[in-house]
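Hi V.,

You were right to ask for the full record rather than a summary. Here it is.
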Amino acid sequence: MSPHIPSHHYWPVTIEAFLKETAMPPTVFGRAAVRDPRLVSDLRGGREPGARLKRRVEHFMNKWRAERVSECAETEAAA
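Predicted structure:
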C-alpha cells in the first residue's frame, strides 16, 4: 500500500486507477472481480472491504494485467 494514501482510501483509489487504465465499466469490474456489480459504487459510498475481498480484487487486477501483457507479447512475436 502506498504510504501517501490513507488505508481507508487506498482501495477506492487503486480501483479507480484500474478502471481508468482499462476503460472497464465499474459494474463489469465488480462482477468480474468478485461477482458484485455494486462493488465500486459501494466503495465510492464508503464501504470498507475485508481482507478476503481485498485479496480477490488484487488477484483479479494482477491477473487481468498479466493476461494483457501476455497477449501483447504474443502479438509482437507474431509480427
